[in-house]
Amino acid sequence: MTAPDCCVTMAHMMMPQHANPQGNVHGGVVMKFIDDAAAVVAMRHSRSTVVTAAVEQLSFHHPVFIGNLLSLKASLNMTGRTSMEIGVRVEAENPLNGKIVHIASAYLTFVAIDENHQPKSINPWLPDTPESKRRELDARARKKRKNS
Predict the structure, then answer these.
(1) How far from each other are the two terminal CA atoms of the chain, in whole angstroms?
(2) What is the pLDDT of residue 26?
(3) I want to staple 79 with a disulfide (CB 3.0 to 4.6 A). Which of 9, 125, 141, 148 is the partner?
(4) Over the range 30-57, which residues count as b (16 or more CB within 10 Å of their CB) and which as e?
(5) Which residues pair with 74 in a beta bridge?
(6) What is the homologous superfamily of the domain 3-147 according to CATH?
(7) Beta carbons of 46 and 84 less than 8 angstroms apart
(8) Residue 145 buriedness (CB in 10 A; 0-12 / 13-18 / 19+)
(9) Residues 28-49, mean pLDDT to the nearest whole number
(10) What is residue 6's predicted lDDT score, i.e. its pLDDT?
(11) Taking residues 28-52, what's their average pLDDT?
(12) How many whole angstroms separate alpha carbon 108 and alpha carbon 117?
């Protein structure tokens, strides 16, 4: 698995249909984009259909407004036998002044499934950079806390 196969960056311009009457983008819209970006990483790694099994953590830090460019950076953090944890960092850029704000972070678990919609074994992911090793250690710590 090469580095480009375990991460993706997606961008979306926030338009009026994404927002409420005050001009703030709905959190559910951001959540869908998070799920979409994470799913791409999970499908690339498993080379199969995947389903969202859990959203372990989703934190919103700042609002997003109509006209912002939303960038989602999704990365594979850890693999199990059939599951994967994907982390997503969301940033909003004001394209008129270039200001970028970290607006949300999320951790999602995906399960690879076969043609009968049953969990399917996946290849393990072996992190090979200091950053990917840190992400895997953090993911294992989150899993341990969850299972305690």
Answers:
(1) 31
(2) 95
(3) 125
(4) bbebbbebbbbbbbbbbebebeebeebe
(5) 8, 88
(6) Hotdog Thioesterase (3.10.129.10)
(7) yes
(8) exposed
(9) 97
(10) 84
(11) 97
(12) 19
Which residues does 128 contact at the CB level (< 8 Å), separation at least 6? Answer: none
The amino acid sitting at 133 is K
Residue 117, phi-psi category: left (phi > 0), alpha (psi -120 to 50), beta (remainder) = left
Please work out, in degrees rounded to the nearest 5, the angle formed at the alpha carbon of residue 18 by the alpha carbons of 14 and 24: 80
Contact of 14 with 82, CB cutoff 8 Å: no
Whole-number Å distance between alpha carbons of 33 and 37: 6
Domain extents in the chain: 3-147
Q: What mean pLDDT value characterizes the chain?
A: 93
